[in-house]
Structure formats: structure tokens, C-alpha cells
TrEMBL record:
This is beta-fructofuranosidase. GO terms for cellular component: vacuolar lumen. Pfam families: Glyco_hydro_32C (PF08244), Glyco_hydro_32N (PF00251), INV_N (PF11837). The lineage of its organism: Eukaryota, Viridiplantae, Streptophyta, Embryophyta, Tracheophyta. It is found in: Vacuole lumen. Keywords: Glycosidase, Hydrolase, Membrane, Transmembrane, Transmembrane helix, Vacuole. It comes from Nepenthes gracilis. Residues 1-32, 70-107 are annotated as: Disordered. Residues 446-632 form the Glycosyl hydrolase family 32 C-terminal domain.
Length: 643
């Protein structure tokens, strides 16, 4: 087990001691709600008396008063006079949110029309009405409603002023936007109410632990809870008056301590929470024990550490059943259970996971295969996807995964269209007991409720070099299920040795073949989602699952990567993919969700009625037979509450 002194061998710890301005003495176990109400009232009085002064300050700084009734209700009450929010804060705050920047090659901004930009908005994915969104936070199910919180900037389409947006749904598809749940209004989250997770205690109490970026840019963990548990919509949230409940250990840098997980109970009856961090270049997951969520003890070793992976953001840690498809409560452990550890790597903005064993007595997690450890092995999704988080849906007995789909255009374009980012369709996560080496991700079954007119194609023969128009018009909201049977006798020694997805235009002996989504009639814009069969360097067969954005748009100021990863295809299996198309979002699930790729694309021609769907086989030496089921998907009902 790696101790902190082992980790220190990589170099000296960063000097970091932080003495926060402490709140009242933490309450006894089980008294969170009652004890903290009075300080909240006091806080309210202070806030109210500061309001006039704050309004004056805001008026002077921004030249205008708070704008809407909703914003007035959540107007900021600066407890630390003199705090003035800088214009761009990502660097100062130790996070970087927009990974795509326009290169310095002098590309002109593309002349987007309003129609093009309006078309990009999704129809059945969750996104706010306007402005910036990033990580999903604290998902949970309570009294018949699914709750989704999310990192949100109420002021603009770029990251900043991070608050918790809040929406609820009966079915994870149709959503009601609720008022902001938590805003940065206290010294312990003055620079942002950052990512956190919810835990439902056995007595029904809900606690949220979230990262606050303090008034002096220190990352701390704070406690919040619903003001009224009997409210199914959980409209009011109370920040514990004794916040922060956790400050960075003195050997952790002040900006490397964030994103607490859902808590789980260990064999000693104490709750555990893990928080992501790093020591030099080693990504780590700290573990804290608590009985009451206000007082914590740092375990003297990490849950896990992987050298070279850098800062671990948004760690997620959950049990998974190896014997059945049912999801497990986060505290479950024992025979037939493995544990998944996921980290979002700040250095490359990708989510990685590994499957392993959790020893609840020692509080360490060990990967099944050290070569596929967290951050160096499997990715949750090989596309534009980050900061994912699961929750146990106790209503349907399943583990559900949310993920943030960021933009791959420029900040200027985001401001032009007035919004940035989308959440994935929630996915059910199970263990793949056919391979034994990976998880499976699959869109929640509720997506099927959006399906309308179904079109099916059976046994479409795709000779090498063919492109087949499936004559689906208005192909912007689709659920596609495709199966490809290949002539295995052709998979012989002439196969290419491939190390990545290449681009779909380059022909190999046994690939690429698959679908062309969001394609215009003339094939000037198209997004291939495909398989590519090749040889690994050791001569064995390998299979790639890919999405190629290089020809998705004629716009020049957006990212045009080819995404993809290896996908296990077992003996006797055909190649299968499910693809959800929702305007500018393409979510692709290879081999039942063994490998997933999410893309944000920006077509200019393949939009509205011009968006079409094709099959293709660009292999030179492989015959492929395709069968495809296609459903148009209706739009989800996503609107503010009350109606
Ligand atoms: N986003 C949050 C942080 C987290 C990062 C800030 C990941 O808590 O580390 O908006 O995208």
C-alpha cells in the first residue's frame, strides 16, 4: 500500500499550510440539520444587512443591479468585503475548463449563421436554457424524482462564477429546470461552488459534500443538505455553518484538493469519502473517515495512486456486481463484487477507469491488471467527455453514469450561440462478464420512450469501397442499432498493422466500415462511426471502434480529431454499434457499450432536413453485411418549473 512517505520520494511536498477561518464548533453526530439552522439565520441577518452595501458595490463594479427575480433570490452576499471577481479565473483557480483553443494558425472565425447555431442545440440531451455548464454534480433519486445538479455559470457562456444548477426528472429524459441550488455566497466557496457528490444515509438524510474555492483560492470541502427532506424537489439547500469540513492537508497544494465522492460505509461502520489530488506528477485519491460528515480523519495512506497521471479530478468509486446486471449501493462489498475506480485527468482532460478489488479494512484498492491501471489503461469514453459521475438509482436498482460533453469550438463561438456544453444521455453501468476486463455502458432504457417511426434494413451487402444511402431524411434525432457481419475467411495475413483509428478516408484491408451520420447529400460533410480490423504489433487481431470528425464540418475553427479506442470482439460475435444522434451530439456505443465515443460536431450543411444517414465499407479486402434498425427520436420535454 503506498504510504504518504512513499509518495514523497518523487520529490519534496509542496509547502502548503492553510489555516482557514473556522466556523462554529462542529455539532455532534446526527445533529447536522438542527444545529446548523441557527447560524444560517444569523448568516441571513448578516447577508441582509450587507445587501444594500453589496448592491452598491455591484452597481459600481458592473454598472447594473442584479437582473432577474431568480438572480435576486440568490444574490451574492459577500462575507469577505473587498473580493472582486477577476475577469478570467481558470488559471488563478487551478482548473482549466475549455481544452479546445483556436490554434495560432490564423484561421478566420467561421461565418456562422443563426440557423446553423440554432440547429446545434440538442433535442433530447440535458442542457440549460443558456450559458455555460460543466460537470454533473450530486445526482440522486429522491421521492420519485431524479435530481441532477451541474456546474453552471449563470452569467455567460464561458466558465466562471460557478454555481450549482439544478434540474429534476421523473424518468431521466424529460426535465424541469429548478432555481439554482447553491451559489458562491460564502467565504468558503466565494470563488465557486465546485464539484461534489450526494450521499443518502440509511435514515433518509441527504448530505452533499462539495468543493468550495475560497475567497483566497484555496480548495476546501464543504457540507450542504436539504432544508426540507419532505420536499420531493429539494428546492432549498443549507450550507453547514461550520464549513469547511475539510481543508487541504499541509503537504497537499492548496489548489490540488477537490471533488469529493459519494460516501460509503466500511466494515468498521464509519463512512469514507475520497478526494482527488496529486503529489508532484502522481495522481492520488485521499481517503477520509467520518461518522457524522462534519468531523473527518484522514487515513494515513491513499486509496490508490498512479505515477505520471497528474491531478485526479472528479474521482468516482463504486462497486459492481460480477454475477448479474443489477447495480449496487455504493457501500456494497463482498463476494461477487469488484470495485471501479475512475479519475478525470486534469492533464489531458480524459476520464479513465480500472476494475479492481477494494479492501475495506485496509482502505486500499488494487487494480486487477496493473498494466490497465487508472489513467494508463481504459477510458470511460474516447471522445469529448469528462468529469463523469455515477449514482446508485435505488428506485430501479441500477448504477447510472452521467458525463459532461464539452465544446470543441472557440469561446467566441460559444458566446455567439449563448450556451456551452451538454450532458450525455445517462448510461447504465454493468460489469462485462464475457470479457471480464471492462465495464459496459448503455443508454438508460427510458430513451426508448422517445422512439417513433422505425425503419429496418436487413442484410445490406457492402462490397469493398461502397457507400449506401439509407434514405433517412431529417436524420438529426436518431437511435440507430447496427450489426455488421464480416467474412472472416478474408481476415488473413494481409491485414494492416494498425495502432490507432487512422481516418475513415484511408482504406485498409479490413476497415473502416460502419455508418456515416450527419451527412449531406453530396457527402461534403459527414461523420463516420466505424470499426477497423487490423493486426497488433505482435500479429494478433485487434479491433478499433472510432468516430472521425475530420470531415464533420466545413468550418475551420473547430476541433477535427479522430476519436477511438480498442474494442473487444469475441469469437463468434458480429460487430455491433448503437449510435444516438442528437443534432450536434453523436454518442456511439461499440459492442454493447464496451467502448464508447461521444462527439460534439458542428456541421454547416448536414443540418435540418439535409441531414442524412449512410452505410459505408471503405475496406479493400473485406465483404461486410449490415443490418440496421433506425428510430427517429422525439424531442424531450425540458422546460422551467413551474410551467
Ligand atoms: N470542474 C470543477 C472542479 C473540477 C473540474 C470546477 C472538473 O471541481 O475539478 O468547475 O471539470
Amino acid at each position: 500500500m503506498p504510504s504518504y512517505s512513499d509518495l514523497e520520494e518523487n520529490g519534496p511536498f509542496l509547502p502548503a499550510s492553510y489555516t482557514p477561518l473556522r466556523g462554529p464548533t462542529p455539532p455532534e453526530s446526527g445533529h447536522i440539520q438542527a444545529i446548523s439552522r441557527r447560524p444560517i439565520k444569523v448568516f441571513g441577518v448578516i447577508a441582509a444587512s450587507c445587501l444594500f452595501l453589496a448592491s452598491l458595490v455591484l452597481l459600481i463594479i458592473y454598472g447594473q443591479p442584479p437582473q432577474s427575480p431568480a438572480e435576486t433570490a440568490h444574490s451574492r452576499s459577500p462575507l469577505s468585503p473587498g473580493n472582486v471577481r477577476p475577469a478570467s479565473m481558470e488559471e488563478a483557480q487551478g482548473v482549466s475548463q475549455k481544452s479546445f483553443r483556436r490554434s495560432s494558425d490564423g484561421n478566420e472565425t467561421y461565418p456562422w449563421t443563426n440557423a446553423m447555431l440554432a440547429w446545434q442545440r440538442t433535442a433530447y440531451h440535458f442542457q440549460p436554457v443558456k450559458n455555460w455548464m460543466n460537470d454533473p454534480d450530486g445526482p440522486l433519486h429522491h421521492l420519485g424524482w431524479y435530481h441532477l445538479f451541474y456546474q453552471y455559470n449563470p452569467d455567460s457562456a464561458v466558465w466562471g462564477n460557478i454555481t450549482w444548477g439544478h434540474a429534476v426528472s421523473r424518468d431521466l429524459i424529460h426535465w424541469l429546470y429548478l432555481p439554482l441550488a447553491m451559489v458562491p455566497d460564502s467565504w468558503f466557496d466565494w470563488n465557486g461552488v465546485w464539484t461534489g457528490s450526494a450521499t443518502i444515509l440509511p435514515n433518509g438524510q441527504i448530505v452533499i459534500i462539495y468543493t468550495g474555492d475560497t475567497d483566497n483560492y484555496v480548495q476546501v470541502q464543504n457540507l450542504a443538505y436539504p432544508a426540507n427532506l419532505s420536499d420531493p424537489l429539494l428546492l432549498e439547500w443549507v450550507k453547514y455553518a461550520g464549513n469547511p469540513v475539510l481543508t487541504p492537508p499541509e503537504w497537499i497544494a492548496l489548489k490540488d484538493f477537490r471533488d469529493p465522492t459519494t460516501a460509503w460505509i466500511g466494515p468498521d461502520g464509519l463512512w469514507r469519502v475520497t478526494v482527488g489530488s496529486k503529489i508532484n506528477k502522481t495522481g492520488i485519491s485521499l481517503v477520509y473517515k467520518t461518522s457524522n460528515f462534519t468531523d473527518y480523519e484522514l487515513v494515513d495512506h491513499v486509496l490508490h495512486a498512479v505515477p505520471g497521471t497528474g491531478m485526479w479530478e472528479c474521482v468516482d468509486f463504486f462497486p459492481i456486481s460480477t454475477t448479474g446486471p443489477n447495480g449496487l449501493d455504493t457501500s456494497a462489498n463482498g463476494p461477487g463484487i469488484k470495485h471501479v475506480l475512475k479519475a478525470s485527468l486534469d492533464d489531458n482532460k480524459h476520464d479513465y477507469y480500472a476494475i479492481g478489488t477494494y479492501d475495506g479494512v485496509k482502505d486500499i484498492w488494487t487494480p486487477d491488471d496493473p498494466k490497465l491501471d487508472v489513467g494508463i489503461g481504459l477510458r470511460v469514453d474516447y471522445g469529448k467527455y469528462y468529469a463523469s459521475k455515477t449514482f446508485y438509482d435505488q428506485d430501479k436498482g441500477r448504477r447510472v453514469l452521467w458525463g459532461w460533453i464539452g465544446e470543441t469550438d472557440t469561446d467566441d463561438d460559444d458566446e455567439l450561440k449563448g450556451w456551452a456544453s451538454v450532458q450525455t444521455i445517462p448510461r447504465v453501468v454493468t460489469f462485462d462478464n464475457k470479457t471480464g476486463t471492462n465495464i459496459l455502458q448503455w443508454p438508460v432504457e427510458e430513451v426508448k420512450s422517445l422512439r417513433s417511426n422505425n425503419t429496418e434494413f436487413d442484410d445490406v451487402f457492402l462490397e469493398p469501397g461502397s457507400v449506401v444511402d439509407l434514405n433517412i431524411s431529417s436524420a438529426a434525432q436518431l437511435d440507430i442499432s447496427a450489426e455488421f457481419e464480416v467474412d472472416t475467411t478474408q481476415l488473413n495475413a494481409t491485414l494492416d498493422e494498425i495502432k490507432n483509428c487512422s481516418v475513415a478516408a484511408l482504406r485498409g484491408a479490413a476497415g473502416p466500415f460502419g455508418l456515416l451520420v450527419l451527412t449531406d447529400e453530396s457527402l461534403s460533410e459527414l461523420t463516420p462511426v466505424y470499426f477497423y480490423i487490423g493486426k497488433a504489433t505482435d500479429g494478433t487481431l485487434n479491433h478499433w471502434f472510432c468516430t472521425d470528425k475530420s470531415r464533420s464540418t466545413e468550418a475551420n475553427d473547430v476541433d477535427k480529431q479522430v476519436y477511438g479506442g480498442l474494442v473487444p470482439v469475441l469469437d463468434g460475435e458480429n460487430f455491433t454499434m448503437r449510435v444516438l444522434v442528437d443534432h450536434s451530439i453523436v454518442e456511439a456505443f461499440g459492442q454493447g457499450g464496451r467502448t464508447c465515443i461521444t462527439s460534439r460536431i458542428y456541421p454547416t450543411r448536414a443540418i435540418f432536413r439535409a441531414a442524412k444517414l449512410f452505410l459505408f465499407n471503405n475496406a479493400t479486402d473485406l465483404n461486410v453485411t449490415a443490418s440496421v434498425k433506425i428510430w427517429h427520436l422525439n424531442s424531450a420535454d425540458i422546460h422551467p418549473f413551474p410551467l
